[in-house]
Amino acid sequence: MPEVKILRKWVHDPEQHRMEVALSRGYYQAARQALTEMKPDEIINLVRDSGVRGRGGAGASCGMKWGFMPKEPTPQRPNYLICNCDESEPGTFSNRELVEYDPHQLIEAIVISAYALRVRTALIYCRGEFLFGYERLNEAVQEARERGFVGEKIFGTDFSLDIIVHRGAGAYICGEETALMDSLEGKRGHPRAKPPFPANVGLYGMPTTINNVETLCNIPHLINHGLEWFWSMGTAGAPPEEPQARANWIKSLGTRKSTGTKILSVSGHVKRPGNYEVVMGTSLRELIYDVCGGICGDHDLKAVIPGGSSMPMIPKPIAMDVQMAFETLQAAGTALGSGGVIVFDDQTDIPQVCLAIARFYKNESCGKCVPCRIGTDWIYKLIQRIVTGQGRMEDIELIRDVCINLGGERMMDSRSYCPLGDAAAWPIIWGGLKYFQHEFEHYIRYRRSPVGAEPALVGAH
Ligand SMILES: Cc1cc2nc3c(=O)[nH]c(=O)nc-3n(C[C@H](O)[C@H](O)[C@H](O)COP(=O)(O)O)c2cc1C
């Protein structure tokens, strides 16, 4: 079985959230070692050399991002660390499990990361709907405070840290790092222009690093097991022995390869949906057929969204051979994104899938910029027109035009204020329309669904 249990090792134990249980399993030893035996830059270098990339969507090199933070913050200009636990991307539910059932793994990770980044105040931004996770996190922070793992002079060192858990109000846009900071500051969650980047001007205008829950949870394991162990999982292979070649190999990891594991949230038409942790590079075929038991009702596979609803779906012939890693999915015309794998069987009506996706982004566009506000609405209305039997053949090109052009104000390619514009356009133009245009044409020509024995209920929307 390609499934491994590192970050998810203890999530099935209902007592794991308690401090005594976590301690009995060796938790906080990595934090003690880091704070008492390692220099902050040693940890930053370890994280950079590991090649660990952001698990929240963009896949940026974590160590490289950490390297941009000031080394000598002052009380007037402190550094901040924010853990992004907003997790609102449809199809993604791995952060939620980690904070609900193993919150001390994250707290320990934050203690180590904050030490490395010279941070005295770290914040966890928790999705509004995650009430249970929010309560579990607060309890865990309180327990850590009582044990002296959070607070003044941790492990007898000069390092002090406070952790604040903040619950959002439930808006997808607040997962975007700059909107998240606006929301934390008490404003309406709207994205900010970049540059300046958060490492320079972030929360309250101060240098800030924002990382996903899963990204951070890797850090204690890295301290405990070291680089070779982390490299041994993933697509990079073994490092060369010759020093210069080895240095070049390490340098390229964070941008060109994928190391460690990834928790994939699998939903849709599989027999055993759920969260699964696999080594980077595991094939989608193994994930669907070996780990998740195959397609429900033993139907055939039609398509897969590999990284949450904003990533383009890939059809069966591509999906069966692709490896779940950053660079391999990119080469296949899609992305690992947030690791939300949505599986569609051969009975799936793809235009209806696209309609559901378009509806989500139309509702969640914050409205700050015109291309996204208008474009998401246009995409939704055009697909709706097609699946309700009112479509015209020209509408297909019109959808493409909205994504790519929109009267010069295109949604994609960073022309929207933040990547929500891309997130709304990509799954339609590079997924649904790219591989299943014939299904949209079928709707337009025959005014009924291209799949299933029953005629579609035209006009039911
Ligand atoms: C619209 C939108 C929503 C996002 N939602 C999340 C989210 O819920 N969780 C998350 O970790 N990253 C989310 N991101 C990505 C963050 O902006 C940011 O890149 C990430 O938190 C950085 O952490 P990482 O480098 O550890 O992945 C979102 C991005 C966009 C554009």
Question: Please, could you describe this protein's structure?
Answer:
The chain has 18 helices and nine strands. With 461 residues, it is of the alpha/beta class. Among the domains are: 19-225, NADH-ubiquinone oxidoreductase 51kDa subunit (Rossmann fold); 350-446, Up-down Bundle (de novo design (two linked rop proteins)). Strands 6-5-9-7-8 form a five-stranded mixed sheet. Strands 3-2-1-4 form a four-stranded parallel sheet, with helices on both faces. The chain starts with 18 loop residues before the first helix and ends in a 15-residue tail after the last helix. It binds flavin mononucleotide (FMN). Flavin mononucleotide is lined by residues 54-58, 60, 84, 86-89, 172-173, 175-177, 210-212, 215, 418-420, 423.
Per-chain topology:
Layout: H1 19-24, H2 29-37, H3 40-50, H4 62-67, E1 79-85, H5 94-101, H6 103-116, E2 119-126, H7 131-147, E3 162-167, H8 177-184, E4 208-212, H9 213-225, H10 227-231, H11 243-256, E5 261-268, E6 274-279, H12 284-291, E7 301-305, E8 314-315, H13 316-319, H14 326-331, E9 340-345, H15 350-364, H16 370-387, H17 394-404, H18 420-446
Helix pairs in contact: 2-6, 2-9, 3-6, 5-6, 5-7, 6-9, 15-16, 15-18, 16-17, 16-18, 17-18
This protein binds flavin mononucleotide.
